[in-house]
């Protein structure tokens, strides 16, 4: 069974349609990248999957269950944003444990999970700091850690590396790829960066103006782009 299925998904803001009938199937464990120019609807699509935005039409199913009317918190997903979205008044440790405390997870279980995740993301020495005392890369590690702690069915990333400098971006790409290998979860990763898409993805969806122009493996898109737009965007020789 597909992990995530989008059927005829549409989104309108007022009279403006920004997502125009998107169909996608993502299998368990896949690293799926949504790529496309600024304003093409990547974030809107991700927000509808997460439940932060409602759909104007179509069906979203997770593991076969229709989730259109399921609240964001109950979809079992974790989202990582470009802007980190950490709680500024809380320590790193509190940022990591916050969601779990709401779920009434026992204290010793929370402590063990935070320990594991801190080791995985090398943030042990940051646990008692506040977000303002962290670098951009450290903040994003914590934000990813917070997503991991929740043990989501699917990870959603919205341009998580855009605020980082080029060198750090390359390091973090590697870390996210390692995390994917280690956890094996499905990851949906939004970026406008072709290199990021080509190097990280199992599958790429190329979006333009609210439409998926092509969906497939990186090499498939590279060697057999369906049109000039995809070719240009992926950087294939055609
Ligand atoms: P991307 O993430 O690919 O840059 P977005 O999903 O943010 O694109 O935006 C897609 C389109 O929807 C853009 O034209 C944007 O202006 C519009 N849009 C996004 N959110 C809103 C909103 N809350 N109200 C009105 N228009 C919006
Ligand atoms: Mg966006």
From TrEMBL:
Domain ABC transporter: 4-234
Assigned keywords, A-Z: ATP-binding, Hydrolase, Nucleotide-binding, Sugar transport, Transport
Root EC class: hydrolase
GO cellular component: ATP-binding cassette (ABC) transporter complex, substrate-binding subunit-containing; maltose transport complex
Example GO molecular function: ATP hydrolysis activity
Keyword Transport tagged: yes
Name by which UniProt lists this protein: Maltose/maltodextrin import ATP-binding protein MalK
Protein source organism: Granulosicoccus antarcticus IMCC3135
Whole-protein residues included: 1 to 238 of 360
